[in-house]
Amino acid sequence: MDNFTSDISGQQFPIEQRIWGASIRQPIFKLIRKEYPGFAKDKCIAASELTRFKEAYITEFLKDESGQLSQLDQQVIQSFKDNKVISAGIDSDVGGATSVGERVADKVAEFGGSWTFIISFLAFLLIWIAFNTYWLNNKGFDPYPFILLNLILSCVAALQAPVIMMSQNRQEAKDRERARNDYMVNLKAELEIRELHEKIDHLIIRKEQELVEVQRDQVEKLGFLLKKMEKIEEAFKNK
Fold first, then answer.
1. What's residue 35's pLDDT?
2. Could you report the per-residue pLDDT of 205-236, keeping only the tens digit for each?
3. Is 7 within the bounds of a domain?
């Protein structure tokens, strides 16, 4: 296996890890020059060594954006370093385990905000009023002005409101968690796109260098053939 020597550490690495300075983005190149002033565009570095400078650049980039690294930024940097997928397990994290009370609150809020509840409640009110007014001739257990009905309505409203607020608070917590995960995924995607651009530039420069080497080899072979032809011509002339 062919190896090359890194110009910043002097260590041997596989040739597949060789990255030329010309293919490194300018901000990362400046970080390398800051630590190794002798590093230039025609020098090379190993991909494993470049990772450390990428992490330093990402850290400085995020600090410049927000002034300091938040916990989310640190998690993104760590996932970028470990090459892990942030979006894995987001749905399970957002959903989480729910208690019986939370499930009941969700069901109450779902039913209380539906047309089924509105129509059913209106039907209940009409039946209650009609039963006490007409069937019992306004002499039943709740005659006009329907004090018992007003008490029931007040109790329902008093109990329903906090239950719906409980469900809304849980939904807001889910929304915050989703927004947090969206931020992390978007930031990771931006960093991955930056790295992808760098890899494409590296591949283009590497292919150009390979073409230059092939052309150089072809020129050397042509020169050798021309010299050989000149010698043959001289030999014919001498005869």
1. 84
2. 667 777 877 888 888 888 888 888 877 777 77
3. yes
In angstroms and rounded to an integer, the radius of gyration of the C-alpha atoms of the chain is 38
Number of structural domains found in the chain:
2
Contacts of 87 (CB under 8 A, 6+ apart): 181, 185
Phi, psi torsion values for 14, nearest 5 degrees: -60, 145
Backbone angles phi, psi at 30, to 5 degrees: -65, -35
Burial 111-143 (b: 16+ CB within 10 A, else e): ebeeeeeeeeeeeeeeebeeebbeeeeeeeebe
Count the Cβ atoms, other than its own, within 10 Å of residue 12: 10
77 assigned to some structural domain:
no
Closest CA to 58 of 201, 198, 179, 177: 198
Measure CA 172 to chain center.
Answer: 21
* Residue 127 lies in domain: 91-181
The string over 224-234, giving b where at least 16 C-beta atoms fall within 10 Å of a residue's C-beta and e elsewhere, is eeeeeeeeeee
Q: Is the pLDDT of residue 123 over 90?
A: yes
Q: Are residues 153 and 104 in the same domain?
A: yes
Q: CA-to-CA distance for 54 and 33, rounded, in angstroms?
A: 13
pTM for the predicted model, two decimal places: 0.47
